[in-house]
Amino acid sequence: PADPLSPQEHGLDFQRLLDASAYKEMYRQDMIRWGEEKRRADPGFFCRTAVEGAVQPVWVVSDTRRLSDVEWFRDVYRDAVQTVRVVATEETRKRRNWVFVAGVDDAESECGLDQGVAFDWVITNDGDEQSLDQQLETLVRSLRGRL
């Protein structure tokens, strides 16, 4: 969105804000603060922005972070919504170079969906490719059956 505090207005590299780099970490808390201000003013702001102009019969909305996001999609799209949580153990995450940062990784933007959501699907991604493939195939079959 074209907002005075958006990454574009600050000359930030949006693509680099999406990866797990030192660049992202440098701006992460400011962007979280900006996002929280937008959500306080309008809980559906980011959800509406994400779907604006979309006409596809099936969407995959990745990386929702808050209960208000899930509630917005459920309120607007009702039974068409299927929620999927992807989990990995802390050990697996550390092997993938994740390092806990207090004040960031324990903030709502990172763990707001750890409680209070009954997910339709929970996919485990701990590095077992065969298991992951089986879980995803089951999910895809179910979704195709709903079309």
TrEMBL record:
Q: Which GO terms describe its molecular function?
A: ATP binding; phosphomevalonate kinase activity
Pfam families registered for this protein in UniProt: P-mevalo_kinase
GO terms (BP aspect)? cholesterol biosynthetic process; isopentenyl diphosphate biosynthetic process, mevalonate pathway
Which Gene3D superfamilies does this UniProt record tie to the protein?
P-loop containing nucleotide triphosphate hydrolases (3.40.50.300)
Cellular component per GO, a single term: cytosol
Q: What pathway or pathways are given for this protein in its record?
A: Isoprenoid biosynthesis; isopentenyl diphosphate biosynthesis via mevalonate pathway; isopentenyl diphosphate from (R)-mevalonate: step 2/3
Q: Cite the EC number.
A: 2.7.4.2
Determine if Transferase is one of this entry's keywords. yes
Its keywords, alphabetically, are:
ATP-binding, Cholesterol biosynthesis, Cholesterol metabolism, Cytoplasm, Kinase, Lipid biosynthesis, Lipid metabolism, Nucleotide-binding, Steroid biosynthesis, Steroid metabolism, Sterol biosynthesis, Sterol metabolism, Transferase
Protein location: Cytoplasm, Cytosol
| Keyword Plastid among UniProt keywords | no
What's the protein here called?
Phosphomevalonate kinase
Native species:
Eurystomus gularis
The upper taxonomy is:
Eukaryota, Metazoa, Chordata, Craniata, Vertebrata
Gene name?
A: Pmvk
